[in-house]
Automatic annotation (TrEMBL):
Residue ranges of domain O-methyltransferase C-terminal in the record: 200-430
Name of protein: Unplaced genomic scaffold SPHSTscaffold_119, whole genome shotgun sequence
Keyword list, A-Z: Methyltransferase, S-adenosyl-L-methionine, Transferase
SUPFAM superfamilies, per database record: S-adenosyl-L-methionine-dependent methyltransferases, Winged helix' DNA-binding domain
Organism: Sphaerobolus stellatus (strain SS14)
Swiss-Prot/TrEMBL GO biological process terms: methylation
Amino acid sequence: MPVALHNSSADIIALANLISSTVQEIVTEYSKAGHDIPSLDSTDSGPFDAPEKVSGTLSKAIRTIEAACAQLSFTVASPGHVMTNKSYGYEEPAGMLVALNAKVADHLVDKPEGLHVDELALKSDLDAGKLGRILRMLATKHCFREVKPNVFANNRLSMQMVSTNPVSGLLGHMSDEGLRAGSRLNEALTDPKTASSTSADDSPFHRAHGVSLFGFYESPVGSKVSERFAQAMVGWGEVTGKAMLPKVYAWENVSENATLCDVGGNNGHMVLDLMKEYPKLKAVIQDLPPVIEQAKELWTKENPQAIEKRRVEFVPLDFLKETPVPNCDFYYLRHILHDWPNSDCQKILSNVRKAMGPKSRLLIHEFVLQPAVRDTSGTAVNQAPEPLLPNYGMGRVRLYQQDINMMILFNSKERTLQEFIELTEQTGFKFEKLWDSGEAGLIEFTIA
Ligand SMILES: C[S@@+](CC[C@H](N)C(=O)[O-])C[C@H]1O[C@@H](n2cnc3c(N)ncnc32)[C@H](O)[C@@H]1O
């Protein structure tokens, strides 16, 4: 029997109505805060550019618009046209890398009247004709503005490419070593030697560069862009709302002197920010020995009082082999499990479980993926309204792209809530709550 399909005319009218009502919500949110919506042509930063400044209502409205506009245009355009455009997608990062390396956005700072491509090409030692075509393609995708034929100026999007903006580092990393690694995905997945491997040595990145991602930045080729990678990590934190942590959880209800152990906390930058808002907390930062030394340096500079008053401790740890400091109130794992296959995640979680006291809590801070098909069981959370895809489609597409990025870079993965629950149940935890924290989710567990 044929499957009954939606009535597309009804769907596109519903999408158009959703777009119209959601645009009104966005205008209201801006005007409530006393702001106008910044024009794409502007080069000033907007009031809500940082994710932590965006209210829950505004964030939902923005992802609804992104999802609905894409779904509407994919519905009405010819499928061949849509799919051909998608397959040309690689040209955007390829062109972006040319513009980044040529520092086009830097040359255009404070030049609202723009610069002729001949002048831009001279500054960057590129062929003017070719550079102009790349800039026009980018401008056609709303990054840069063509103010007169062959005269280009910055806009709101191209300002992210200015070299002092940390996001430019992320764009460089993705459009350079990332794009080259991505082009080897199919080979890595079809070679019987690497097809089902979860080792970083069998990743598309390793295939493309002959070394895994972290080794790459110590290699002769990679060391030339290692500073860009460090900048990329800062940009990544800004874009994905690293500063959301103090706002996401009910820290105000947590008792005085509650201790949070940041497992694989790197230099402890997350807890550093959290303790600025909640100085009642105490912290233990745990990571590999050399990283812990960097953590001490950062805290000595940023919060020496916490060290003097013994409100923070730095304890080296190999979380695959050792148990973290016992009996902390919280064990916090941010962007740890997504680096590892299930077997290693179980080792890490078992070690954390051994350290926990009866009242300790585990907080996993990761992207939480949702299937693209609607869950009709009545238990699903955060599904988008119909006729949108339930996981917000293009409104949250970066989560799914980041999952593939993890496959390309490390042979690792992002996970669904169900996958996190299964992993933790196998290691003695009980799921308590998913705290919505913008792009990433904060998942709370107690001991089973
Ligand atoms: C993706 S980073 C996440 C860092 C931090 N949690 C954050 O959100 O910024 C992964 C961290 O795991 C640490 N790491 C890797 N292997 C480790 C191990 N075996 N034991 C402890 N830490 C490890 C790395 O040094 C790094 O700081």
